[in-house]
Specification:
CATH topology of the largest domain: Rossmann fold
Radius of gyration: 20 Å
Distance between the termini: 29 Å
CATH architecture of the largest domain: 3-Layer(aba) Sandwich
Oligomer: single chain
Number of helices: 10
Strand content: 25-35%
Order of helices and strands: EHEEHEHEHEHHEEEHEEEEHEEEHH
Structural class: alpha/beta
Number of strands: 16
Strand order of the largest sheet: 5-4-6-7-3-10-11-12-13
Shape: globular
CATH class of the largest domain: Alpha Beta
Helix content: 25-40%
Number of domains: 2
């Protein structure tokens, strides 16, 4: 039998989102919450909300702080709502420095700190907004090709080396997907080193808004695909539901997971067997009202499946 001498493991954490928890490995359940995780997709699909929600879930389970370097301009009230909805009650440390070089250095410093309450989760939102100091201080129209990729490559390598053998820290990075000008296909900013060193890459897209595609005031269904997975097989899909003002809602997500897996009826009215739970609009309103008891039968479906 093979034997590894030393410390090396992947800390898989069950988040209570069935298709996501089962998307990374055929047999091992849980999100491989370690190292660099890049979340990318087209604009306005919910990348930041997805990362805020997952970070809050992990931060609650791990009892740790979260560091956030926001480079696009966040809505702090919405962020607080998402954190509270997931039961996160530790500190979220905003990393605000004069330059993005100093931002990335501060992130590494927070990860290395030995405070009583450690910082184990980081968010860099987003890579496409990074402006190297040469770009900020240079003239408009000056050529700065490759400087963002160089900064991200240095940061990625430093972070990866800093956490080697520790296995208890994760960095989420949001990124934008756009057309590859002058060629075919799509690309994401930040350079190839970022892509190579990310242990997990997740592509997100919005499937449908509710009550319909023209009105997403109640929420919307998100679909993800694991496009890179160093810790198991890639290619698996998962679903999650965003409730407006809350972020990912485990109960509503469980309903769509159950529909996707054929565990419950998917007609106009949601049913488990002969018992009706009403229309989706009313169900989402129960989520907004914080009626956790209503969703227990749907969450229990997966306990039975296990």
């Amino acid at each position: 039998m093979a034997e590894i001498v030393g410390t090396s493991f992947v800390p898989r954490t069950e988040l209570g989102l069935w298709t996501l928890d089962h998307a990374f490995h055929k047999e091992k359940v849980g999100f491989p919450a370690f190292g660099m995780v890049e979340v990318y997709g087209k604009p306005h699909v919910g990348k930041s909300t997805f990362v805020y929600s997952l970070s809050a879930m992990l931060g609650k389970l791990w009892d740790c702080n979260i560091a956030l370097a926001d480079l696009e301009g966040l809505d702090q009230e919405f962020l607080i709502d998402v954190l509270n909805a997931q039961g996160f009650d530790n500190k979220l440390l905003l990393v605000q420095e004069p330059s993005d070089e100093e931002v990335t250095a501060k992130m590494l410093e927070l990860y290395a700190s030995e405070d009583e309450k450690p910082t184990r989760i980081g968010i860099l939102d987003s890579i496409g907004a990074i402006s190297p100091i040469q770009e900020l201080e240079g003239d408009m129209g000056a050529a700065n090709m490759g400087r963002r990729a160089r900064l991200m490559a240095q940061f990625s390598r430093k972070f990866t080396h800093q956490i080697l053998g520790i296995n208890d820290k994760i960095l989420f990075m949001t990124n934008h997907q756009h057309q590859n000008l002058g060629s075919i296909g799509t690309i994401t900013p930040g350079g190839k080193t970022l892509e190579y060193l990310s242990g997990v890459r997740i592509f997100l897209k919005m499937v449908k808004g509710y009550p319909d595609t023209t009105d997403t005031s109640l929420g919307y269904l998100l679909e993800g695909k694991i496009t890179k997975n160093r810790y198991g097989g890639k290619g698996a899909n998962f679903r999650a539901f965003f409730v407006s003002g809350i972020g990912i809602h485990k109960g509503v997500s469980a309903i769509f997971d159950a529909i996707y897996l054929g565990l419950i009826d998917s007609g106009k009215v949601v049913k488990i067997g002969d018992k009706s739970y009403g229309y989706m609009k009313g169900i989402i309103e129960k989520a907004q009202a914080g009626d956790d008891k209503f969703f227990k039968p749907f969450l229990n479906l997966f306990k039975e499946k296990e």
